[in-house]
Amino acid sequence: MVRRLMALYPVIMAGGSGTRFWPLSRQARPKQFLPLASKYPLITDTAARLKGLASMKNLFIVCGPLHAKAASKLVKGLPKQNLLVEPVARNTAPAIALATVQVAARDPKGILIVLPSDHHVANPEGFRQTLAEAARVAEAGHIVTLGIKPHRPETGYGYIQLGEPLEGGGRKVKAFKEKPDLETARGYVDSGEFLWNGGIFVFRADVMLEAFAKHMPEMKKGLEALRAAAGKRTFSSVLKRVFPKLPSISIDYGVMEKAENIAVLPGDFGWSDVGSFSAIPEVRPADARGNVISGPESIVVDCDGCVVLGDKRPLAVVGMKDVVVVDAGDAVLVVPKDKSQDVRKVVEALKAGKRQKFL
C-alpha cells in the first residue's frame, strides 16, 4: 500500500485512435478498449493499477464523444461528473487543460497524475511508488515527467536528457529529444544520461495553470472561460463553445519544452507503450519458440517469433518467422513484425477508398 501524503487526482487520457492495431482497433473501439496485455482492456488495467494511490472519486477520464460510453462502462465506479468529454479532438495540451480546470475548481493545489490509457505496467506496485514520489516532487512546485529507464536503443520513443539533481528528489530536465535514429539511440543508452519519455506527468493544478498562462497565452481567454464555469451547470455549454477554439498542440510543445520548473523522475517498473503488434511479446507470455498465440481455434505449426491473434474460426499459420497474423472476424491482417508500424497505412488506404464499414 502506497502512503498518500496529499490529494491525488489521476487523469486517464483516452482520446487516442490506435490505428496501428487495425483490424482489432476500430473508430468506435480504439486500442485502449482492447484486451491486448491481459484479459481486460488496457483502460481497465490503467484504472485498476491506481488502487491504493488515489480514490475513485478523484479519478478523471478525458475522451471524445464517440468513446465516452465505453470508457464509463469499462472503468466501473467512475463518477459521472468525472468523465470529461472533449467536443472535438485538440491534442494533449487542451485535454490536460480541461482536466486541470476541473481539479482546480475542487482543490486548487490538488496534484494531477496524467496517464495514457493504453500503456502496460508489469510492476504496478513499483509504478505506484514512483508516482507517489513524483507527487511529493510536484508538491514543491515542479511539473514532473516520468522517465523510463531504457532497456534497448529504441527509435520509436522520444528521450529525456537528465540534468542536475533537485533538492527533494528528481532531476532537472536538460533537454527533450525527438525520436532518434538507431545510431543516436545507441549513444543515448550507452551514455546513461537519457530516459525514454513515457508521456506521464504529475503536477499541482495551480502550477500547471500558471504554466499555461505563461507559455500558451493564446489559451488564456478560453481557459478563463472554462475556469469561471467549472463546477457549474453552464460548464457543458461553455465547453462546447470554447474548446474547439483552443490551439491544437501537444503538452510537450506547449509547456514541457518551454517551462523552467520541469523535473524528471526515473522509473523502472516494466513499462511498455504497447505501440504496435510487434510489442505484444513484451506484455504477453510466449511459447518456447517465441510465439504469442491467442484464440480458441488458432493453430501454429513450425513458427518462430510470431504473433497470432485469432477469432472464433480456425486460424492456421505454418512455417513462418517473425510475422503478425490477426483475424478480427470481418478482416485479416498479415504483416512482418518489423513493419508493424505501417499498419496505420492500411487505415489510411481504407479511408481513401471510403470503405467506412471496416474503419
Automatic annotation (TrEMBL):
The keyword GTP-binding applies. InterPro entries: GMPP_N, ManC/GMP-like_b-helix, Mannose-6P_isomerase_type2, NTP_transferase_dom, Nucleotide-diphossugar_trans. Keywords: GTP-binding, Nucleotide-binding, Nucleotidyltransferase, Transferase. GO terms for molecular function: GTP binding; mannose-1-phosphate guanylyltransferase (GTP) activity. One of its GO terms (biological process) is GDP-mannose biosynthetic process. It comes from the Bacteria. It catalyses: alpha-D-mannose 1-phosphate + GTP + H(+) = GDP-alpha-D-mannose + diphosphate. Residues 297-350 form the MannoseP isomerase/GMP-like beta-helix domain. Its EC number is 2.7.7.13. Gene3D superfamilies: Spore Coat Polysaccharide Biosynthesis Protein SpsA, Chain A. It is an enzyme of class 2 (transferase). Residues 10-287 form the Nucleotidyl transferase domain. Belongs to the mannose-6-phosphate isomerase type 2 family. This is mannose-1-phosphate guanylyltransferase.
